[in-house]
Amino acid sequence: MTDTQIDLLKTSMDWTKTEMLSSAVFAFFGLLFLLASYGFWQYGKTDMAKAYVIPMLVVGVLLVILGVGLIIPNQLRLSGFPLAYNTDASAFVASELARVEKTMNGYSTAISRVFPVIILACAGLVMVVEAPIWRASLIAVIAMMAILFVVDTNANARLGVYKGKLLHAEQQL
């Protein structure tokens, strides 16, 4: 293997490990939401505090599922990189580029359109809704969308760097 080949394989593996770390951040925040739900359940005295129990529980479960659900495929992909690269480096780079492009398009839609619209809609509704359960639910959704926005924006930036390295490797193969 040449230095370029070793660098590309290492870069792909490092990027995947970093994605697993981002996924763990989702799971971590999910656990924090679960702890918050428990805290509101145990110590909430007002109607508003009690209203946070279910929304925080739901958001926490969703974030844990998302985090773990993204870690597992990346772990499987990570173990298959060396074999895929050694079998056919050009096909490996092409498949990674296709996956990166598809993922970046998804991030672009989510980051620039979906998350902001959901956050704005929920923020607008918080101002007009009176029921504590609805307010708590809307605030929990805003918090979840903010976490998704920050982590996905960071992941998209890393993905752009990875795509550049893949394009450079494609030219050298």
List the helices and strands and how they pair.
Elements: H1 3-43, H2 47-51, H3 53-87, H4 89-128, H5 132-172
Helix pairs in contact: 1-3, 1-5, 3-4, 3-5, 4-5
Write a structural description.
It is a single chain. With 173 residues, the protein is mostly helical. The protein has helices at 3-43, 47-51, 53-87, 89-128, 132-172. The chain contains 5 helices and no strands. 24% of the residues are buried.
Features:
0% strand; 173 residues; 5 helices; mainly alpha; 94% helix
- What is the rounded distance between the termini? 12 Å
What is the overall pLDDT average?
93
Count helical runs. 5
Helix content range of the residues, please?
over 70%
Strand content: under 5%
- List SSEs in N-to-C order: HHHHH
Shape: elongated
Count of the separate structural domains: 1
Biggest beta-sheet profile: none
Rg, Cα atoms, Å: 20 Å
Low-pLDDT stretches are none
Class per helix and strand makeup: mainly alpha
Number of strands: 0
